[in-house]
Amino acid sequence: MENYLILNTLNFPILSLLLIIPVVGAIVAMFLRGETLLKYWALAVTLVTTLVSLPLWTNFDKTTAKYQFVELRHWFPALKLDFVIGVDGISVLLVLLTTLVMPLCVLCSWTYIKTRWKEFVIVTLLMETAMLGVFVSLNTVLFYIFWEGMLVPMYLIIAIWGGARKDYASIKFFLYTFTGSIFLLVAIIAMFIKTGTFFIPELMDHSYSFAFQMWVFLACAIGFAIKMPMFPFHTWLPAAHVEAPVAGSVILASILLKMGGYGFLRFCLPMAPAATVYCMPYLLALSLISIVVGGYLALGQSDIKKLIAYSSVGHMGFVTLGIFLLNDAGIKGAMLQMLNHGVTTGALFILIGIIYERTHSRELSDNNKLGMFMPIYVTFLGIFSLSSLAFPGTNSFVGEFLVLFGAFQDFPLVGAISILGAILAAAYMLRMLQKMVWDDSDGHAHHGHDDHGDGESHALFDCNAREFIQLAFLTIFVFWIGLHPTPLLDMMDSSVAHLLHQIDAGSVMPEAVEHGSTHHALLENAGTWIKNLF
Amino acid sequence: MLNTVFMPEMALMLTVMVLFFMTLGKFRTSTVQATSLILAAVTLVVTFASLGTKGSMFYDVYQIDALSQLFKVVIVFGLFLVYFLGTGLNGIQERLHTEYNMFLAISALGLMFLSSSVELLTILLSLEISSYALYVVIPFRRGQGRLHVEAGIKYILFGAASTGLTLYGMSYIFGLAHTTYLNELAEKMPALVATQPLAIIAIVLVMTAFFYKLAMFPMHFWTPDVYQGAANETTSFVATLPKVGAVLLLLRFVAVAGVDVSQVTWVLATIAVLSMTLGNFSALVQTDLKRLLAYSSIAHAGYVMIGILTADEMGMAAAVFYVIGYLLMNLGAFFVIYNISPKGENVTFDDLKGLSRRSPLLALTLLVSVFGMAGIPPTIGFIGKFMIFAGAIHKGFYALVIIAVMNAAVAAFYYLKMVRAAYCAADDDREVISLPFGAKIMGAFFIVAIILIGSLPQSILSAAKAAVLTLL
Asked: Of the candidates B406, B417, B461, which has its C-beta nearest A78's C-beta?
């Protein structure tokens, strides 16, 4: 086991601390009273988690594809289950993204959440542990526990603090993701029965028969595709995004959706390489459909939150596209795109939360001509909208460029179609920007005092310091990644190379299988089955 | 020898005797409760002490082994929790409180006997001791129209019918194998099952009474009505303890039928699938929480059966673990139901509204129990499902697991409905529920136990593994 790992050399157990601090924070929060205290407590806990996570950035060894900062404890000997956590180039940035976004989730809820702060703090902190746990688990069962455990707090966030149709949205979210991930459980158990281990690196090294890989791939892919979300499993996302409170939307967009991509990279690609290569065309096709359909749907929305939600479908389409191009640029681009989406879409949801607190509407037509009243706000809106449509100089440009570069390398046609998605992104984002900042063509642009009798609460004051800090913080990342992405790409380098090596080594097998007569029928069956499916 | 190994039964008999003499006088409910609790606690201690003892008694019809002792601990512990949970016995007519506790103890005693019985007639006898006590107890309910009478009659009729079928099956088994001892049957039956269709029928018929106890298809019809009609504290007993006993006996009979995959396995698999599917789909539309839990228990019986029918160490240990977890989670849910209705009336979704404000502890207990039953980590229910699936995949029953998994997804919906009602539904300003200190402890216990055993299942799982090894 040790040859996959580099044990933690820091003088404190960094990853365990990351998992424990929010839980302890949640337990302490149970005994705290008073809204203000709870708010500051939540902020403090999430900030401490952020600080603790920073050594992951500074001490990360970029030269190795092994898992680092590993901690190993015996947990459940009857099943040879160990508590193993560690990070590599694929997960470390997602861990950092999570710890950086969580304080913003608390900040953006500061006035947005008005009831039940105690419960809110508890579920938000538990959510943080669960999300970090997903990214650091090196054991499939541990992974699954965090993966599923996350559903409960997220469900509660939507169901308690959500909007008008929260019942529908929260149950749809829960059932969709639960159904998807329970197949993942079957795959996890099946792999355990086959190999006798739950340890992820060992599972990657094991070579399975093609038919088995196919089943594992499908079982995992359903779960991850739903989480992504990928067309045709994307319908839960707009509902959940629209109804979730602002923190819920930010968590969903910035972190939860990344888990699908992370799952593909961690499970499907290395564990079922032959099946991955076999299914690649279908998944590329689905990614393209996601990109185009997401873009068109976003174009038609009048609700700002829905618009951003559908744009997420399109953006995540780019991520799966990059992943399943199975080349260096594609995978790196996909990973970078995950981070970018976390930053940009997270910021857009914060922006929507800010405007919703002022006008109590998410309709485009109720929120126009803001440029006159809120100059700082529209500046940020402009920056993040441009970032979202991958304007050169911003973060998304780098990610999307890498994905497109990867696409044109191998499949020019795929690249050509996905360009359409980029154009659509420009169309819907600019439309939104134009309407919100300048437009008053439909005559609704009477804000504050005119529309509503109860004056002050609806007045369109500009961003306050708290909001400014959140947005400015994320803006740094927009330009940093946009102008100088090398450090991030360097961190991914060895792990991505290792992953590609695993796929190459693993996918040599199917040719051998195809020539062998016994497995030929199985392969054919699997192939036709998928063709029928799509 | 007899003294040490038979101590748990003696202690519980003592409990019954003390309660019997108390029925002759007049005592306050609190006195009765305190006495029952103390005696149950003593029995629990004695049963714990007897863990690991071995022996056989009464011409070898009564066997003390790791399996029986583990189940005895679970049964006594369950009885203790049911006594504790029903503090005040709000749903039972006042003059019957002492009798009520006595009959529950008798029923638990029957189940204890059942855990150790390894001979057909002894099994039948123990089963009847446990059932008759429940026949008496189910109609003990204050108010509520005639529902409890209906429940009582249904329980008796189905019980009698299933016992008859079991006896009928036993007659076949005796005719085929010329013995009633399980260990001798275990040598003869596998060959007979492989060749004689009658042997399959006989085994399945013998299991009928335990399908009835476990609320499994096709003997599940009584479940919703009895759950609904009986008092909340009675239901919490009926829903948990007899099921534990039934699982044990099903394990014993499956082991008798042989560990190889045979026709019996397929019959049981069919029953498991029907039970899960029917239970889950019926539960979706229920509005009375007890009826909902009844259908969910039918579904859970299906999951347990998947573990049982694998007939190997992993699957059977999983079934044992699952039923222990089920007992905890179900009692957790009934604890909430009992405390929501101070007068012992039935609880519907409307009564759950605003629960998170009226009593955060009850709401959290409900959330943990219910998500446990849905199989969400890190609860005991997740480990149970995980082990069951692992056992079944180990044996190669992929299709069964996939059906079970899809069922779990369906089930998540109605469990979620309960949580939603408790946490999200519009609050109609009902008064806050103030829990007595004991109930607070109990709620915290359920939450901690369900999550803690879910995160550190090692000890119970190894106990379950050691226990099922005696069967193989």
From this structure: B461
Compare CB distances from B378 to A149, A166, A182 and report the shortest one's residue: A149
Angle, alpha carbons B90-B289-B296 (nearest 5°): 125
Mapped to the 3 state alphabet, what secondary structure does chain B carry?
CHHHHCHHHHHHHHHHHHHHHHHHCCCCHHHHHHHHHHHHHHHHHHHHHCCCCCEEECCCCEEECHHHHHHHHHHHHHHHHHHHHCCCCCCCCHHHHHHHHHHHHHHHHHHHHHHHECEHHHHHHHHHHHHHHHHHHCCCCCCCCCHHHHHHHHHHHHHHHHHHHHHHHHHHHHHHHCCCEHHHHHHHHHHHHHHCHHHHHHHHHHHHHHHHHHCCCCCCCHHHHHHHHCCHHHHHHHCCHHHHHHHHHHHHHHHHHCCCCCHHHHHHHHHHHHHHHHHHHHHCCCCEHHHHHHHHHHHHHHHHHHHHHHCCHHHHHHHHHHHHHHHHHHHHHHHHHHHHCCCCCCCEHHHHCCHHHHCHHHHHHHHHHHHHHHCCCCCHHHHHHHHHHHHHHHHCCHHHHHHHHHHHHHHHHHHHHHHHHHHCCCCCCCCCCCCCHHHHHHHHHHHHHHHHHHHCCHHHHHHHHHHHHCCC
Rg value, chain A, Cα:
23
**Angle formed at CA A128 by CA A126 and CA A133, multiple of 5 degrees:** 95
**Is pLDDT at B292 greater than 70 in this prediction?**
yes
Average pLDDT, rounded, for chain A: 85
What ipTM does the predicted assembly reach?
0.85
Output the six-digit token pair for B244. 């534990």
Q: What is the pTM of this model?
A: 0.88
B399 touches chain A (CB under 8 A): no
Nearest residue on chain B to A144, alpha-carbon basis = B377
- Residue A336 CA to chain centroid, in angstroms? 11
Q: What SS3 state is found at A298?
A: helix
Q: Give the pLDDT confidence of A174-198 residue by residue, as tens digits.
A: 888 888 888 898 899 888 888 888 8
Of A148, A156, A171, the CB nearest to B377: A148
Q: Domain residues of chain A, as ranges?
A: 2-533
In chain A, what percentage of residues exceed pLDDT 90? Answer: 25
Can you tell me the distance from the alpha carbon of B326 to that of B221, in angstroms, rounded to the nearest whole number?
A: 20
The pair of three-digit structure tokens given for residue B367, joined into one six-digit string: 């959330």
Q: How many residues does chain B have?
A: 472
What mean pLDDT do residues A424-448 have?
A: 74
Phi, psi at residue A139, to the nearest 5°? -135, 130
Phi, psi dihedral angles at A178 (to 5 degrees): -65, -45
Alpha carbons B292 and A162: distance in angstroms, whole number: 27
- Most distant CA pair in chain B, distance: 67
